[in-house]
Amino acid sequence: MTRGKLTQAEMSPADHAFYGLVWAGTVLTDRVDKALNKAHGLPVSWFEVMLWLASQNDPVPASVLGNSTMLSRSQVSRVLDALQERGLVVRTPSARDARSIEVALTAEGHELFEQADATRRDCLAPIFTEVLDEGDLEALRTVWRKLKGRKAELAPPPATGRSGRSGTA
User: Fold this and answer.
1) Residue 48 φ/ψ, nearest 5 degrees
2) What is d(CA 80, CA 59) in angstroms, rounded to the nearest whole number?
3) Start-to-end Cα distance in the chain
4) Between vectors from CA 161 to CA 156 and to CA 163, what angle results, nearest 5°?
5) Distance (Å) of CA 147 to CA 21, 29, 129, 136
6) What's the CA gap between 25 and 45, in Å, rounded?
């Protein structure tokens, strides 16, 4: 016997909250991605890397970006290639570790980031910051801090092959 679609009334509070987070993240990210692409030719993944770089006072080791963003290391590498090609970042050998490369926004990168961040804020305002009050925003920050505090436990499980064994050797 097949079961029909689960309704919101049948969902547990935990399931409803989880799917709400997934829905909100997907909808908000898609909205920002479209606005940034239209206004600046800047995918949201590029913006995420630029956001992290803009918040730093010094160049950042490229390896740190993979750990600090929601992108894989290979995605970060491709984003950095694209940003460098547009003259928005510069890669330099690390003065502290000859094996490491550090990344920083160029002046043009800082300027574009400021414009893109204003676009992000403008596109989110009518559906986020103008809708949620300070209590709502503080509740979201609390949830985020609790989940982020369990980051290691939230990491995806290791991939398994067809044999069912872990993908590691």
Assistant:
1) -60, -45
2) 13
3) 41
4) 130
5) 12, 19, 22, 17
6) 14
Q: What does the pLDDT look like over 24-53, one tens digit per residue?
A: 999 999 999 999 999 999 999 999 999 999
Q: Which position has the token pair 């570790």?
A: 97
Name the residue with tokens 């559906």: 127
What is the C-alpha to C-alpha distance for residues 9 and 117, in angstroms, rounded to an integer? 38
Tokens coding 162: 């067809």
Helix or strand (DSSP H, E) at 103: strand 101-105
Q: How far apart are CA 53 and CA 131, in angstroms?
A: 29
Tokens 């043009």 belong to 108
Q: Which residue has the tokens 């800047």?
A: 42
> Which parts of 41-92 fold into alpha helices (H)?
44-54, 62-68, 73-85
Q: Is the pLDDT of residue 160 over 70?
A: no
